[in-house]
Model the fold of this input.
Amino acid sequence: MRKTAFGLSAALVLAVLAFTCIALRRFNVTLRAARSQVSRENSLAFTLEPVIPARDPVFEPVITVDTPTTAAIFSGKLYLAGPGGLAVYDSAMAAPHRLRTGMELPPAPILALTVAHLRGHPGPELLGITRGAGLLLFDAHGPPRQLLPTAPEARDLTAILPLSSGDLLLGTRHAGLLLFDGTQLRPFSPALAHIDVTALAGNEADVWVGTRDRGLMHWHGGQLGSLDVSAGIPDNTILSLADSPRGVFAGTPLGVAQIVNGQVSRRLGRGLFAQSLAVQADSLLVATLDQGLNTISLNGRSEPVAFRGPSGPDVTALVNSGDAVLGLSHGSVLRRGDGGTWQTVLAAPAQMVADSNVTALDFSPDGRLWIGYFERGLDVLDLASSRVQHFEDDHLFCINRIVVDPTRRTMDVATANGLVLFDRSASVPTPRQVLTRRDGLAADQVTDVGFSANGTMVATPAGVTVFTPSGVENLSSFQGMANDHVYALAADPSSSTALVGTLGGVSVLDHLNVASSVSLRNSSLPRNWITAIVRVDGTAAQPAWFVGTYGGSVVQMDAVGHITRLDTPTPTAIINSNALFVTPEHVLAGTLDSGLLVYNRGTQHWAQITTGLPSLNVTAFARRNGEIYIGTANGIVRLAEQALP
Done:
């Protein structure tokens, strides 16, 4: 009897266990299904397609500066990448195979390279993150492919971290941290969905996320923690990360934090702008923007190590490559051996011009092309002989505008520190005069120069200065202008009317008096911030103008201030400062990140061009002999005007 009861009890227990196992299995299946459903619901749309090389319109490069900013070794070859694209070296002695930005590659700079074997992919690939064009994938055989999220904010990548599982973490500027598992792209965690990611390090168990202004995030065991200045991080802006057996190192503008067991153990390199890090043996290598390369021993004192000056070559970026560390130095590639000595692997090629970040263009009457840069001064290029003359000093460094002065017979160069007048007739251009506040300018910073019947107008952040035959006059909001901060000027030398584009709208001047102002309050102007103005049509009595705005594309304005919205392809485009240009057949508009906008004056239709440009940041224009020269943040291209739509 007991045996029967025991047998029944055992059977009951087994039945219960079986039911429990079935229930747990169903629960796990349901949980996985729920997670899969959540993953599908949160997944981001994207395309993964081969990159199609540019064909039409055909832009011819005029200036390219090939300075790599990142490197990797893949399949026994050296890959260098940067704003100009990707260069593949079979050896240091062989000419590279190049994939150019805007031609064989999308018009976006490559920020970082890494090698990874992604889940579901047949083999390892070289991966490159871009600013605005998503992820590029290179294998050893076929053409490059592009993983392009549909959402624009998910295309602007800033950091990359392959995981041993085959998953890929992608940091973005506006969409937080993303995870790509080979088939789906989704946010990594809601807690990290909207942060500005700057750097990544770690593995599946410990993910370290550097941010623009929130310090260092730590994802561990499904929990999110953070370290900021209150925890010992030198600054809440994380520039770089390096993971090593000695801990995680976080580079900031004020030095480096060494993190052990999730806590800051010490601060190193106090005062260093630590934009790139690498750990080799017992040394921490810190590459800076303008303080050279610093090597810090990790076996020294635990207290902060103050900056005492560079202790190595002028390296601006560091790349781990197996047991060695590569350093990039102004286009050259160096290799650091185990003994700490640096050897040149690849010397920088000779460059014709100083920089590629173009901000201003104009031709002098003798046919030389004047090129202004964001922070490298001025080049004067003879296109026939390829001879270049470079100018850079305390005044000539940040160039905002270059114009031919019809009154002084000079080339006027507007800079962040004055208006520089060059003698344009000399075989070697020489600065004739530098005008600053001491000479009557409302401010030293000059943003534009214009010419009217009343004299030479100079735009500054403190108003407009006009050099008239009788003296210098200054106009500002005190005289009724829309705003003191002036970005753009436009006038007809035969007319007394001039337009002033400011941070607060457009002011119309008549004989140096403010006749009216147009802004959001009294018109259909889409934005108050005016960045460019050109005269397009009309007569002296009834002029018509195109007005570029910051975030409202281009609008038309007539003589009485009436605003007409134009059917541009990108209604919210940001028009760059002074990036409107008029030809007999077209009006060209350069945008911050939407490429080139072209208005056909005959058909009155707009077109947008992105294919073939070296950068979507179009900044300046010039025209000569029927050709349009287009300045961008990544060099200059040209094409025949008849090729424009």
User: Anything to note?
Assistant: The domain at 64-194 is CATH 2.130.10.10 (Methylamine Dehydrogenase; Chain H).
